[in-house]
Write a structure and sequence with these properties.
Elements: E1 7-8, H1 18-31, E2 34-38, H2 44-58, H3 62-65, E3 78-83, E4 93-102, H4 119-144, H5 151-155, E5 160-168, E6 180-183, E7 189-195, E8 199-202, E9 208-210, E10 218-222, H6 224-229, E11 239-241, E12 249-257, E13 263-264, E14 282-283, H7 284-292
Parallel strand pairs: 1-2
Antiparallel strand pairs: 2-10, 3-4, 4-5, 5-12, 6-11, 7-10, 7-12, 8-9, 8-11, 13-14
Helix pairs in contact: 2-4
Length: 313
């Protein structure tokens, strides 16, 4: 899959290269909603520091991590662990920490680990840098569609952001489970930093392609609300995490998504007058409720919000 070769984002600042970089991003968004970026402006030292505090937290004794345990609710936060082996449907094999970072009023510091001591400060600096990067990417994506640079950002309303630290320990029988089963992200745009190989993206003929772990790169994937806002021009992509029996893999995932009361509609500029919108308008809370109810088990959830139209696959 050619679009998984890292795109050098520094080219956006060079008028000789900018059009080529924008075209690479547009191609990736149209084909599968997944791409990797390098020279993205986030300091490598900050990326390394986030990995360091993540490793230190997951290496702590279980009883110390459970101090920050969250509840399995619609907007889960805190520490959790799920290790399930099964001969039937793939389950989970991971431990994680999920933290809401924006808006500031939704930072619940009782779930933020106090060990290692530099954890909170590092997360705040890192997520601020990732928010800037998300806005930059959304600007390029909007302009590639002929929209004003701030269109998608404004369409998603008040900025919402969360970060998930994920740890996939060695599994004794990796053939009986997955780190995370196949899914598409429900929000707007996701930016992932990984340590080790294990992320796979859906490819042709019901196959899966490994997303290679490039040094100092971010994996970017579009989520369901971008598919709706772009009226299907850009797709969210199914992906999953696999595990192995030899080594631990970690990933650090930052999500940018609408507020629960935000109305999501296809951009009128992208709606064909003869065909009409491919998706109905909705409030993001309704989408989260559909996810929690397990509305779409045999297809992508976004398809359940499609207006009956043969163009939706």
């Amino acid at each position: 899959m050619a679009t998984l070769k890292p795109i050098d984002l520094s080219g956006l600042d060079d008028e000789r290269l900018a059009s080529s970089v924008r075209a690479q991003i547009a191609e990736a968004c149209e084909k599968n909603g997944f791409f990797q970026i390098i020279n993205h402006g986030v300091p490598v030292e900050l990326m390394d520091k986030l990995k360091e505090v993540g490793r230190k937290f997951f290496d702590m004794p279980e009883e110390e991590k459970l101090v920050y345990a969250g509840k399995p609710v619609l907007a889960a936060e805190g520490y959790g662990s799920r290790m399930v082996l099964t001969d039937s449907e793939p389950q989970f094999w991971r431990e994680f920490v999920e933290l809401h970072t924006l808006p500031l009023s939704e930072r619940h510091y009782n779930y933020w680990p106090q060990k290692p001591a530099e954890f909170n400060e590092t997360v705040e600096k890192y997520t601020a840098a990732l928010m800037d990067l998300a806005h930059r990417l959304l600007s390029v994506i909007s302009e590639n569609l002929g929209l004003k640079p701030t269109y998608i950002k404004e369409a998603m309303g008040v900025t919402q952001q969360s970060i998930v630290f994920q740890c996939y320990p060695p599994c004794p029988e990796p053939g009986k489970t997955l780190g995370l089963p196949a899914h598409s992200d429900v929000g707007g745009i996701t930016i992932l930093m990984q340590e080790g190989d294990g992320l796979q993206v859906a490819a042709a003929n019901d196959t899966w392609e490994l997303v290679p772990n490039h040094p100092n790169a971010f994996v970017v994937n579009l989520a369901d609300q971008i598919e709706i806002i772009t009226n299907g021009r850009y797709k969210s992509a199914n992906h999953r995490a696999i595990v192995n029996s030899d080594s631990t893999r970690r990933s650090y995932v930052t999500f940018y998504y609408p507020g629960k009361d935000q109305k999501i509609i296809p951009a009128p500029e992208l709606v064909d007058a003869k065909i009409g919108p491919l998706y109905r308008e909705l409030y993001y809370l309704e989408y989260l409720q559909a996810l929690a109810a397990g509305r779409a088990k045999d297809k992508r959830l976004v398809q359940s919000f499609a207006i009956n139209n043969p163009l939706i696959t």
